[in-house]
Design brief:
By secondary structure, the protein is α+β, with helices and mostly antiparallel strands. It has 5 domains: 3-94, 3-Layer(aba) Sandwich (GIY-YIG endonuclease), CATH 3.40.1440; 105-206, no CATH class; 258-365, Ribonuclease H-like superfamily/Ribonuclease H (Nucleotidyltransferase, domain 5, 2-Layer Sandwich), CATH 3.30.420; 377-515, UvrC, RNAse H endonuclease domain (Nucleotidyltransferase, domain 5, 2-Layer Sandwich), CATH 3.30.420.340; 548-600. Helix content is 45%, strand content 18%. The chain contains 19 helices and 21 strands. Strands 5, 9, 10, 11, 12, 13 and 14 form a 7-stranded mixed beta sheet that branches. Strands 15, 16, 17, 18, 19, 20 and 21 form a 7-stranded mixed beta sheet that branches. β19, α14 (467-480) and β20 form a beta-alpha-beta unit.
Length: 601
């Protein structure tokens, strides 16, 4: 492979051969990397037909000062080199995978009695890395399987033969629990330990069939010897493998190693899903977003994703299936578009994932209209409601340190707060701090009033609290004869658990779900409203006590003032005429003097 530099006006001198071209700007920055079957034709197309280019490409062409090329043997080699150069340099006009995660790997160390542990850093010479895994959960599932089947050590000790002979170590708790066979004290031979590691490597490669055959053979071998306890031991290991495989998404046992890609696009981005199939099981599923830079075609975007995702997840599957045909064929890539059968079903599954990812991204960005209805429909689905909850009411109690118990009700219409419908409640029938009885009272008062006024009931009632507050609210609904007609749930603060009446177990909605965020917002608003009301009442009481210290103003007059003006702020802002009409000349004079002193003090 050779590299050569050209000036922009020398593009017609480029060779008619496959290779990679790199564009540089005046500052010497690499701004674009491309591949070509014919460097001469491809690069010239940017300059000879400049008028037919889109505005983004024309803007890039204006920046080009220097061209560098590298010749390769085939178009497929150009594709791989282009991917490496883009990954290393990330030029501003190239398509980039919008994914900055550092993925986890499982490392099988290169040492005596190898360890298997997770890492995100790849260091040459430490051992063999397996992965990357699309998520920590997926990695932990595999690691847990290996540790449940094999007695692989979890310590980081140097178990060289010399250290073991010198009796440097003592067995730990893992040995006594049966999770390790104690190689540190010489209780296990290294050749036996390495047999387990060999089988673990098959699992890490996704080759469960080899590991299953190993345990089947061992089980039959021991059974023939009439060593039934040992046969049972290997049977249990085999069952663990089969249970794990059953949890995996099975495509078809007849389908061997295969990579599946599906793409959906919009004006700005493309969304590509990747399914990695090994021995009929989906072992990796990953969806990425690619931002368009130069109005690339779907084919170009998909090809970019194929090369980079296969590189990222170290896939060397000989067959690739996709949902749209590519513009060109590439020798070295066995790519097809299945129309029927099990492979078409895999394409449909991959496409479903890509579409879902696109929908979630657009929702999160706010680009989808009527988002509030989508969230409400999602909430309806999550809670299995008969109707979309476009009218939600939420209740909360407040009695800080047991004083002045009050409650609040907030109302959300079409997913937005309807502040005019908010209500405050003084607790009338309950003495002392009793959240359960208070909730029964205010829920009963609210819906008795709505029924008397013939107003519509909400589509969902939310109670800020767990099973106790929810049960208390249900009592009120039963007394009114509307229990079962209006859905009611409780939301507990600590774990964000959703409780349903008469259901022992709570519902856990995905923490990232927009429907849960809506419930949290409503709950938090009810809490804020209740706390604010409670503080105002305490302030009024404190202010009322201060008023009674004014000469001529007793408890009744103070209450009269607070009742009339509604708030302390309005009393301080009131005019003399208002006081004269309410409490007379003598008391007004004393009150104004006291307010003036309070203001200056």
């Amino acid at each position: 492979m050779q590299a050569s530099f050209y000036k922009v006006n020398e593009h017609h001198n480029l060779p008619d051969q496959p290779g990679v071209y790199k564009y540089y700007n005046e500052a010497g920055e690499l701004i674009y990397v491309g591949k070509a079957k014919s460097l001469k034709k491809r690069v010239s197309s940017y300059f000879v037909k400049a008028t037919g280019l889109n505005h983004k490409t024309r803007r890039m062409v204006k920046e080009i000062i220097k061209i560098e090329i590298a010749l390769v043997n085939s178009e497929f080699d150009a594709l791989l080199l282009e991917n490496n150069l883009i990954k290393q340099n990330q030029p501003k006009y190239n398509i980039l995978l919008r994914d900055d995660k550092t993925y986890p790997y499982l490392l099988v160390t290169d040492e005596h009695f190898p360890q298997i542990y997770p890492t995100r850093r790849m260091q040459a010479g430490k051992g063999t890395y397996y992965g990357p895994f699309a998520s920590v959960k997926a990695m932990n599932n595999v690691l847990e399987l290996i540790r449940s089947i094999f007695t692989v050590r979890t310590c980081r000790l140097d178990l060289s033969p010399e250290k073991i002979r010198e009796e440097k170590y003592k067995v730990c708790l893992e040995y006594h629990l049966g999770n390790c066979l104690g190689p540190c004290e010489g209780h296990q031979k290294e050749k036996d330990y390495l047999k387990d590691i060999e089988q673990a490597k098959h699992i890490l490669k996704g080759n469960l069939a080899l590991a299953k055959n190993f345990f089947k053979d061992k089980m039959q071998e021991e059974a023939e010897k009439l060593a039934f306890e040992k046969a049972q031991y290997f049977k249990q290991k085999l069952e663990l493998l089969e249970k794990y495989q059953a949890k995996s998404l099975i495509a078809n046992p007849s389908i061997r190693d295969l990579d599946v890609f599906a793409i959906v696009t919009d004006e700005k981005c493309a969304y590509v899903n990747f399914l990695k199939i090994i021995n009929g099981s989906v072992i990796i599923t990953k969806t990425v977003e690619l931002k368009k830079k130069l109005d690339e075609t779907e084919s170009e975007l998909l090809l970019t994703a194929i090369v980079r995702l296969r590189d990222q997840f170290q896939s060397n599957a000989s067959e690739i299936i996709i949902n749209i045909p590519l513009d060109e064929e590439y020798e070295g890539l066995n790519i097809s578009v299945p129309k029927i059968g099990d492979k078409k079903k895999l394409i449909d599954l991959s496409l479903k994932n890509a579409k879902y990812y696109k929908q979630e991204k657009l929702l999160a960005s706010g680009e989808v209209k009527d988002k509030k209805f989508r969230v409400l429909k999602q909430l309806q689905s999550d809670l299995s409601l008969k109707d979309m909850p476009d009218h939600i009411e939420c209740f909360d109690n407040s009695n800080i340190q047991g004083t002045n118990p009050v409650a609040s009700m907030v109302c959300f219409l079409n997913g937005k707060p309807a502040i005019k419908e908010y209500r405050h409640y003084h607790i009338k029938t309950v003495e002392g701090p009793n959240d359960f009885a208070s909730m029964t009272e205010v829920v009963g008062r609210r819906y008795k009033r709505l029924m008397e006024e013939d107003k519509p009931l909400p589509k969902l009632i939310v109670i800020d609290g767990g099973k106790g507050q929810l049960s208390s609210s249900v009592i009120a609904l039963k007394e009114l004869g509307i229990y079962g007609k209006v859905p009611i749930i409780g939301i507990a603060k600590r774990l964000e658990e959703i409780y349903f009446p008469e259901d022992q177990f709570p519902l856990h909605i995905d923490k990232k779900s927009e429907s849960l965020r809506l419930l949290q917002r409503i709950r938090d608003e009810a809490h804020r409203f209740a706390i604010t009301f409670h503080r105002n009442i305490r302030s009024k009481k404190a202010f009322g006590t201060e008023l009674t210290k004014v000469e001529g103003i007793g408890k009744q007059t103070a209450e009269k003032l607070l009742k009339h003006f509604k708030s302390i702020k309005k009393i301080r802002e009131a005019k003399e005429e208002e006081f004269l009409e309410l409490i007379g000349e003598a008391r007004t004079k004393k009150l104004l003097e006291w307010l003036e002193n309070e203001k200056s003090g």
